[in-house]
Design a protein that fits this description.
Blueprint (H helix, E strand, L loop, with lengths): L8 H30 L14 E2 L20 E7 L5 E5 L6 E6 L5 E6 L8 E6 L13 E4 L4 E8 L7 H8 L3 E4 H5 L25 H9 L10 H9 L14 H23 L11 H4 L3 H11 L8 E6 L16 E5 L7 E11 L14 E3 L13 E6 L6 H5 L1 E3 L5 E10 L1 H4 L7 E4 L2
């Protein structure tokens, strides 16, 4: 470790800014991992590492673990510690849409197992950490090699409706995880030492030097990658990365420069998020994201664990067709209008989900309807095949409009369109987005 006092304050500030943007996805991920895999007193605890927790029911407003959750595909989640040995993931054959996405500690995706990538047949896959050197080829349908020693799995499985719940639960129960040694029937390796997990307290950690305390801990599970070697070296000069960072031991001017860097990073993230850009650049594999750490940070903040566009393409609306008025169902009624021949081209399915703002969570409504799409029974189409979805707080009086009603909160909202398995016209821009129109 270098001497932070010898580093120029401006350099410290810039390093802190870059590190805050780069590391915010790691902390966002830890914010979810800690209650699910570490804190056994938390109701969100899944049972530790190597255990699936399935959510057989669609998300409701009571579910707040994820930002902008999908209401079409109930989740399955698990966390793996790959330090001692790899894990084996097995899936059954199924005709329904599903995806099990494996992500590194910084939310970059390691790989995908599911309908689009590996097909509908049963399969067995090895998930290995960065230090695994064994022979992983024989007996597996695929190998996913992580860059970090802690990884998460977030699965999505399509649910057709309440009547489909028993079949969904049966399928989810067949997603299985085992250590490689248990799969092979061999003696397990020595267990990795139990870390002293920092308690996740609240989001205020992102505004203080406590951010770097947590980042220092998490970097112990994250070997240095070539593309990030320079930043990691500069962080090491500030004492971050060795596992013993103490902000109180730093000189006052160093702490002040780091705090200014945190403020700069937060401002850059807020400015980028305020642009309202499509989420196509926010999510993907490490190769897809490259060095665009700001986009990754926005994704971790706006829709943690969103999927890359080739899996699920999504976009949202924050303003009406006039483009200058935020959506607010307390002040107006809206329609989302798909012209004839312009329904979303989807290989699997598409849906529109309503979220309250600013937290981007599902909104309570008396109908209990949180999304609407091509699998929704009873939708009323125009004679020419067009479709108009009704977005308003109160239930429409007309039966046709009520059938197409997606209830909105009595206040600010946004809607997200998801296309599962988007066809080429969606990905290359030939398909035109429908207009969201203010009706009164």
């Amino acid at each position: 470790m270098g001497n932070p006092a010898l580093v120029d304050p401006a350099t410290i500030r810039e390093t802190a800014t870059e590190a805050w943007i780069w590391g915010s996805a790691l902390l966002a991920n830890y914010r979810t991992m800690y209650p699910q895999a570490v804190d056994d007193a938390d109701p969100r605890f899944v049972g530790g590492f190597g255990v699936f927790r399935h959510y057989p029911n669609p998300f409701t407003p009571a579910d707040v673990d994820l930002v902008a959750p999908s209401a079409d595909t109930p989740y399955s989640c698990a966390w793996l510690d790959l330090r001692a040995e790899p894990w084996v993931l097995e899936v059954p054959a199924t005709e329904r849409y599903y995806v099990l996405a494996v992500h590194d500690l910084d939310t970059s995706y390691v790989g995908f197992i599911g309908s689009r990538t590996t097909g509908q047949a049963a399969g067995r896959y090895l998930i290995a950490g960065p230090h695994f050197t064994g022979d992983a080829r024989a007996g597996f349908d695929g190998v996913l090699r992580a860059d970090t020693e802690l990884v998460g799995i977030l699965g999505r499985t399509y649910l057709a409706g309440p009547q489909d719940l028993p079949a969904l639960r049966e399928l989810q129960a067949q997603y299985s995880l085992r250590p490689l040694s248990a799969h092979l029937g061999t003696e397990p390796p020595p267990a990795a030492p139990e870390p002293h997990w920092p308690v996740w307290r609240d989001d205020e950690v992102l505004e203080t030097l406590e951010f770097f305390v947590l980042l220092d801990f998490l970097l112990g599970f994250f070997p240095v990658l070539p593309a990030e070697a320079d930043l990691r070296s500069r962080l090491a000069e500030l004492g971050v990365g060795a596992g013993d960072f103490e902000s109180a031991a730093l000189p006052l001017d160093v702490r002040a420069a780091m705090l200014r860097g945190i403020a700069d990073g937060r401002a850059r993230l807020a400015a980028e998020a305020a642009k309202g850009l499509e989420s196509t650049a926010w999510f993907g594999t490490r190769a897809q994201l490259g060095s665009d750490y700001l986009a990754r940070a926005v994704g971790a903040q706006q829709g943690r664990y969103g999927l890359p566009v080739e899996e699920i393409w999504s976009t949202d609306w924050l303003a009406d067709d006039q483009g200058n008025r935020p959506l607010d169902a307390a002040e107006g009624r809206y329609t989302l209008d798909f012209p004839a021949g312009q329904l979303p081209p989807a290989r699997f399915l598409w849906s529109v989900t309503m979220y309250r703002l600013p937290d981007r969570l599902l909104a309570v409504n008396p109908a209990g309807r949180y999304s609407i799409g091509d699998r929704t029974p009873g939708l009323v189409y125009g004679e020419d095949g067009s479709l108009s979805l009704v977005l308003q707080h109160e239930r429409p009086a007309e039966p046709d409009r009520a059938a197409n009603w997606l209830p909105a909160p009595a206040g600010p909202f946004t809607v997200v369109l998801r296309v599962y398995g988007p066809e080429p016209p969606v990905l290359d821009g030939r398909w035109q987005l429908p207009q969201l129109n203010l009706r009164d």
